[in-house]
User: What shape does this take?
Amino acid sequence: MANLQHIAERIFRHVDAGHLPAGYALAMGALIDANSENHDFHEWVASVTGSAVEKLIACMVRKGQWDDPAWLRDYVQEALKESAA
Assistant: This one.
């Protein structure tokens, strides 16, 4: 189970220190919102490790998708398919 609060604290601390670009804070904020608003995302976070969430954040930043709920939904659905295989 990923600890979203722990990941968020670390991400925000590194962004504040200038070690990560601001996109990481935007992505983390979107994930915090999604965790409370999207049941499927919440369930996915509960079923994966922290490194899976960190990989998601990196993908969101790299692709500039920190404010696209459809992209996040597609990412989680694909991750669920891969884990079921």
Summary: DSSP finds five helices and no strands in the chain. The mean pLDDT is 93.
